[in-house]
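Retro notes - structure team

What went well: the batch runner handled both jobs without manual restarts.
What didn't: labels got mixed up in the shared folder, which is why I'm recording both outputs here explicitly, each with its sequence directly above its tokens.

Job 1
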Amino acid sequence: MSEISSRELSVEAARQKLGLAKDECLEDGLSKWRKVEIRLYWMAKSATSSAAKASFERDLAELRILINAVEAEVAKKEVSQVDPVQRQISPPAKISKKRKGGAMIFSLMFGLLGGGGYYAYKVDFFELRNHERDQVTLKSLQENFGVSIEKRRWNEAQNFIKLFKEAGAAEVVIQESLLEIEKGRNEEKGQQIAFLISNAQSAQEAGQLAEAEIFCQEVEKLQPGHPIVPSIRESIRKSKLEVRRKLIVDEIGKAMELEDWGVAKSQLVMLRKVDPASNRIPSIELSLKTAEEKAIKRKRKAAGLVEKVRSLDEGTYSPEVMALLEEAVRLDPSKKNRALYKQMASYGKMVKVPEDHETISAALKVAKKNDRVFVSKGIYHESLIMPHGVQIIGESRLDTIIECPADIGAVITVPADVGEVRVVSLTLRHSGLVNDDERSPVVAVNGGSIEGEDLLILRASGHGIAVLNGG
């Protein structure tokens, strides 16, 4: 429609734009266009795009100007009919249905709806039909109403109720339609509630308790006081209680393993508060009491063993003493007892030759710092390289003899970076003579350090003791 001003518009112009013949009854045409006005109003209200909405509202405004002009003319005629005697009634001229229909369709398609705007925006409330079906009939409204019900568009279906009333539907039809909307909404609501109830139960069974509670809240929004919600909430409460109870019991178990009796007892108090009716409380209480009593006995026994170990400690390694200390640490693995074990384990061991090892060299290979190699009486043909921190003690200086051929090398060599070496009560000697310029000493201290006591050095091919490279 082009823009229209109600002040300039004549009734003839309004007739022409509305498709009414000059002698056509205004009341009949006005009723028809009033219905079109209602349809156009709902088209504008339910338009899916802002452009379509603006177009429909503009057409609606112009249509109302035309209708107002016609209504003003009808009002004038009603005034003139006050005196029936003076009124002259002439029979209405016959109007060609073809002409009437053509004018209506022309004005409807190109004037009111702007050349197909309705189809462009696909508003599915109704469609304008050709010829005599240019108004939305009650049947078509009911069909579209059925589509809205099927697609569960309840607000849209509710709008059709207003259109039914405007179309003159019987009250029973309107009431049945309202019942159908209510029934559909209730069915949909019931399905939603059933879905939420199922989700709440599944979440509760899976241990997703927070999610289960959210589903319960959604159910209550749709149906306050739903009978199943309290039972689900009770299950959620029990599940939460079980989780909390398990956490507390686990904490008690960990504290008992660490023999932290204070923590274990405080957690037991917490369990009594959280779940006073728990049937596990008596058994846990008994287990805690029994474990604490056993621990006290073990610690007392360990303390007695430690006291004995300290009385036997001479600063040297003793397998018998270490066995006592190991038992004490097993009974009471306290930090203090473990430190004592580490200290005494560092004491040197006594390795005997030939009782433990046939040769002195074999004994030196397994010896560690602070170990002592005790060598019984005899002659041992070996050339020894001393490890760090090891002692060699002979049974007798005269009868415990270590010798090696002069052409082999030194009887004892102390390499660089080797210290804390001690040799006691030994005879060290070469066998045979070497006349070369490079003759080996009996004891070669090649950058290291050695302490000797009660030694006899004989038959040296070179020097008896040679200190080389800063030894």
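Job 2
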Amino acid sequence: MSLEYFFNPKTVAVIGASRNPKKIGHVIFRNFLEGSFKGKVFPVNPNAKEIFGIKCSANIRDIKEKIDLAVISVPAKLVPEVLEDCGKKKTKAVIIISGGFKEIGNIHLEDQVCRTIKRYNLRVIGPNCIGVFDPYSGVDTFFLPRYKLERPAKGDIAFISQSGALGSVVLDWMAMKGYKISRFISYGNAVDVDEADLMEYLSKDKETKVICAYLEGVKEGRKFYKIAKKASKKKPVIVLKAGKTHEGTKAVSSHTGSLAGSSLVCSSVFKQAGIIEAESLEQLFDFARVFSNQPKPKGKRIQIITDGGGFGVLTTDWIIKNKLLLAAMTEETKQELKKAFPAHVVIKNPLDLTGDADAERYKTAIEACLKDKNIDMIAVIILFQIPTLTAEIVDVVSALSERKKKPIIVIAAGGRYTEVLKKSLEDSGVPCFSYPEKAAQALRALYEYGGGK
């Protein structure tokens, strides 16, 4: 059965909806009412007649309309019975938020849930998760209030997380940084829908360009490999694998009840399946932002354009450390730039526009590099602090990046003023980095995904 009803339901029942603002069910029900969800939402609670002025049903089977998605937020011991009711109601999809199953050693209770799923052929995400956030449909099953956890805007990066807590923090951070998302799924113990199922769905999802995942373990190795290999041919798949140390492996088992597996084996499988493995959450999204907005390069030759010599030298070092190459401009490009620039501009690689550069000088340099057949990617270093450079540079770089001729990334370090302009560039689809090493790592990943070795 398709996973579509998890993301685009027309009717939703929140089982365990509550009038008490401290209850998880209260927050989830409120999210659907106050968010952008356009469908119908039904509260289910045998102890309440109405919640927020909406009639409350004692049981999901009392609701006259068909239910596409049920969100269960009740004590763990009640979940099997509630799930049975969902099965009898022929509910299309179920998300079990409740925890207290295999992750705490309650294997018998989780087995009951599994048997009910099989009996009614249900599709279930969870238990022990925070569920789904979809900015396109307005589905939001988080029990974390919006004033505490900001939701990212609509974008094209999907994120799968085995851990709900980690996933929620990442979303809050993404919203603050201005990074955008297509779908977010926290799947917890994965009694039914697992990481491979979600990857397969997202590989076909038209709103998603890049798939990111935080994994603690893989439920079915062969299934995962087969699906991941197909998915990575359609769009980039970036994974951060946790539990890579002996102690981390033990922590994984007590968190979601997963088997973490050998670190070396997982890395080998990822590589064979075409998955890009990130070493940190920050790197995961560094890669995702570049893959999301930039074209595949034809090679690994990079031209550095800078207004500060020191940053140009550091960037050079990191490009070489990442087994990339410095581009050698054609003689035609050099002559064109010599005619356009004052004599003190250093026309080499790095191309140093010096401390009196303005937006027009950057535009001339980038346009020349986009035309040069010897250049595959462009790293633009912008020290916004110099007096001749105005905010106009944001429009210049954004417009040139929109042509999608070659990958263009920006490296810029500084304080509040710099961060404001970087955010404007990010909003226009230009990936920005504070440090050269992170930029070089992202360009290497883009080159390797494009087929380079």
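One thing worth noting from job 2: The radius of gyration is 25 Å.
We'll revisit the folder naming next retro.
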